[in-house]
Write a structure and sequence with these properties.
With 152 residues, the protein is α+β, with helices and mostly antiparallel strands. It contains four helices and seven strands; from the N terminus they run E-E-E-E-H-E-E-E-H-H-H.
Length: 152
């Protein structure tokens, strides 16, 4: 069994108007009413030369989006891997390092979803997107969006 690398990306897909794309996880049934909503996320693969390549690969795999401006926000989160997902990692791995990126698109574009990973999508104003996502690090990243887009 090939274990996942405990290093990942979180990519906040957004417009200049501060609309954020959220994806509903296919395995979200255990997350209660409405399922689990999140930004693009994914683990680094052995063939990824760097984290930007990981972010671009995950964007393409999860949304089909390739046209936009990818920005490394220079923010890193380290968190404990949730117990239900630990079996994906080597037995001694308990924490993941997550690197945050933004992906600016011209307009709220319909994403092409992989039904094995996500079952629905929403474009929401950043405040609503922040409230909807289940992940604390995702909420925190979305909360930074107004400050980050002011620089664009």
């Amino acid at each position: 069994m090939a274990y996942k690398i405990p290093e990942s990306v979180l990519v906040v897909v957004h417009t200049r108007q501060l609309e954020v794309l959220l994806l509903q996880r296919a395995d979200g049934g255990s997350w209660g009413e409405g399922g689990a909503w999140q930004s693009v996320t994914g683990s680094r693969e052995p063939d990824d030369p760097d984290l930007e390549a990981t972010a671009r690969r995950e964007l393409l795999e999860e949304t089909g989006l390739a046209v936009g401006t990818l920005t490394d926000w220079g923010h890193v989160n380290r968190y404990e891997i949730w117990p239900q997902w630990r079996a994906r990692y080597a037995p001694d791995v308990t924490h993941n390092t997550e690197h945050v990126f933004g992906f600016l698109v011209d307009s709220a574009t319909v994403a092409t979803l992989d039904p094995a990973e996500h079952v629905a999508q929403l474009w929401l104003p950043w405040q609503e997107a922040m409230e909807r996502t289940f992940s604390p690090t995702n909420r925190e990243a979305i909360s930074q969006l107004p400050k980050r887009t002011a620089r664009l």
